[in-house]
Amino acid sequence: MAAPSEEFSVNANDAVRVAIVQPAPNSQIQTLHEFHPQFTYPIVGEAEQIFGYKGLDIELQFAAHDLRPHINFSYQKKFQTIGTTSALDLKKTFSNFLPPDTFQDDFETELHKDATNWSPPGVCVKKYTRGGEDYEVWAGSLLDTDMRTLVDNIQILIVFFIEGGQFINLDDVDWTLDRWRVYLVYHKSSKPPTAHASPYSFVGYATTYRFFKFQKPTAQRDQLASFPFPLSEEITPTKLTSRLRISQFLITPPYQQHGHGSALYQAVYDEVLADPTIVEMTVEDPSEEFDKLRDLNDFDRLEPQFKEAGIKINSSPFASADRGRLKAVPTATLLPIDELQAIRAKNKIASRQFARMVEIYLLAQIP
Ligand code: ACO
């Protein structure tokens, strides 16, 4: 017979089910997608085990459109407290990672309210199709209350899918500065399941923030003069020369590997390129998977520009070097540094990432 510690211990990643749901006819709920988390250690501890329940099932539902959350705990048997050992307090544990609404009983009623006119917060910045279906990217400030509610609802997914992923502490955000911008990807259905349902269904999102960097006025003027974009009237000194950093980036598992991550990355990048107040785009602690996505997309963008500029290694300094006494050759004599610098500035790519792209390009040129 299994010891009580084994019998009443469950793997938290298996026990938690995330369900993306929408209203169905006759007041029913339809699950569009269901998946398990990849990580739960920030919530239940390093071992990712929940002690005290047999047959535990934790269903975390999100309304597909506005991501209103709801949690259901069910189990066959709960361990009775013996001495100081007791079952994990599930509500208390999960309430640190979910908004208070999650634990209310009105989820079904709220889900069935008319959402026909609901649209994601912010503005639509990109539309695209995949497999004959329509998708949209919406972007808006975290100062927008609807955007903030939505981000607060969904932040637990950052813990579930990004190793070491950090919550944005919405209580700590400085609301006097409009620094945070959120990008949302939605599937837009041509046929919602009920007359009252929203056509929008969540795919993934990214959060970004700006660093404002003060420079001498002349340096700012020179820098801005090199941008091919007209300067907006609204530019204030504090908005000049800022960097944009991608903070969190997530495509939900059912939609991964279908180009949605690339579409979202490009949407953020296009806004960076079009904004003369942003001089560089950076990424906070990128995962290996994100690095791959970034490399693929940056390379696609840069390769034609490298080709057009005729970037190649100048081998003549090596040819003229005294064989046998090969001296160090400065990079500037091997590569057209000025042309490369111009391409980097135009594309607003961080220097390390740009150096990586140049290296890949040069290696690809070797016959
Ligand atoms: N059809 C089929 N496949 C495609 C298509 C398409 N139309 N377009 C691209 N692909 C391929 C790509 O070539 C790529 O192939 P590869 O894996 O062989 O290189 C693959 O699909 C992945 O590219 P995308 O589909 O564009 O990326 P995806 O939507 O899967 O998103 C991401 C990648 C964001 C890493 C996602 O997997 C994810 O959210 N993972 C979990 C969380 C995470 O790691 N987030 C990043 C953390 S770092 C940070 O937050 C700053």
Describe this structure in words.
With 367 residues, this protein is an alpha+beta fold. It has 3 domains: 4-111, Histone Acetyltransferase, domain 1; 123-297, 3-Layer(aba) Sandwich (Aminopeptidase); 305-365, no CATH class. It is built from 14 helices and 14 strands. It has helices spanning 4-7, 12-15, 41-44, 90-95, 107-111, 145-154, 156-161, 217-225, 260-274, 288-308, 316-320, 331-334, 337-347, 351-365; strands at 9-11, 16-24, 28-35, 49-51, 53-54, 57-63, 69-74, 77-78, 123-130, 133-141, 180-188, 200-212, 242-251, 278-283. The protein has a 6-stranded mixed β-sheet, with helices on both faces. Acetyl coenzyme *A binds at residues 130, 161-162, 246, 248-251, 256-262, 283-284, 286-287, 289-290, 292-293.
Instruction: Please name the CATH topology of the largest domain.
Output: Aminopeptidase
Reading side by side through the largest sheet, how are the strands ordered?
A: 9-10-11-12-13-14
Order of helices and strands: HEHEEHEEEEEHHEEHHEEHEHEHHHHH
Query: Could you tell me the radius of gyration in angstroms?
Result: 25 Å
* Unreliable segments of 5+ consecutive residues: 225-238
CATH superfamily of the largest domain: Gcn5-related N-acetyltransferase (GNAT)
Determine the mean pLDDT.
Answer: 88
Total helix count? 14
